[in-house]
Amino acid sequence: MTCCCSHLCDANAHQFGEKRAAADLRQYRAKGPGQTARLLLAGLANAGPPHGRLLDVGSGVGALTFELLQRGMTSAVGVDLSSAYVAAASTELDRLGRSDSAKFMHADFLDVAAVVPRADVVTLDRVVCCYPDYERLLDESIRHADRYLALSYPRDRWYVRLWVRFENVVRRLRKSPFRTYVHPAEAMETRIRLAKFTLLNRSCTLTWCADVYARS
C-alpha cells in the first residue's frame, strides 16, 4: 500500500471517507456494480471473454476488479486516492478469497504510474471527472493499456455542466476541497484515437458515457 500525500488525495479523502466507503461496499454486496460499471462490463464483454491482467484506476470499493476477476481476468491491481476505499476493497478481497490474485494501492495513479505494471485491460470508472489534469491521466492510462481501455465520464452537455457547477459551488460553501469536472468529450476521444486506439463500444445514459477502446 502506497502513501498518498497530494492535495488531490486530501480532497478525495474528504469526499470519500470511511462512512461512504462502508455504504458503497454494502450496496455492492447487495446490488452488484453501479450503473456505469455495468455499462463498462457489458462493453468489455462485447469485445470478447476478459483475460489477462487488469489495472483498475480509481478502483473504489473494487466492484469492477471483483467482477472482472470473476469473469476471467487472472490478476488485478487497483489504485485509489481514498484510503477508506482501499481498506474497504481490501476487506472484500479477503472475504472473497482472492488476495492471491489482486491488490489495492492507496495512491494518486499519476504519482505511481512509473512503478505500476502494464495491463491487458485498464479501467477508469467515474475517475476522469475527479482529475483536473485529465490529459496526463489519459496519457498514463493509455500507456499502461496493452489491449483495452475502458472509461466512464460525465456527458459533455450543458445540463451536466450546469449541475456540476452547482455541486462545486455547494462544496465551496461547505469548505470541501473536492471538485468534479466535465472535460471535453471530443478532446478525450481524439487523444485516445491518436494513441492508436479504436472505439469498440459506447453506451450513454442521460448524464454518463461509458466507452471501451481497443489498441489497434
> What average pLDDT do the residues reach?
93
Please identify the structural class as seen in this structure.
alpha/beta
**Beta-sheet strand percentage?**
15-25%
Tell me which CATH architecture applies here.
Answer: 3-Layer(aba) Sandwich
Q: What is the fourth-level CATH superfamily?
A: Vaccinia Virus protein VP39
Sketch the topology as an H/E string, one letter per element. Answer: HHHEHEHEHEHEHHEE
Low-confidence stretches: none
Characterize the biggest β-sheet. 7 strands, mixed
What Rg, in angstroms, do the CA atoms define?
A: 16 Å
Give the overall silhouette.
globular
The number of helical segments is 9
Kindly identify the CATH topology: Rossmann fold
Kindly report the spatial arrangement of strands forming the biggest sheet: 3-2-1-4-5-7-6
Domains, number: 1
Helix content bin: 40-55%
Number of strands: 7
Q: What is the CATH domain class?
A: Alpha Beta
Tell me the distance between the termini: 33 Å
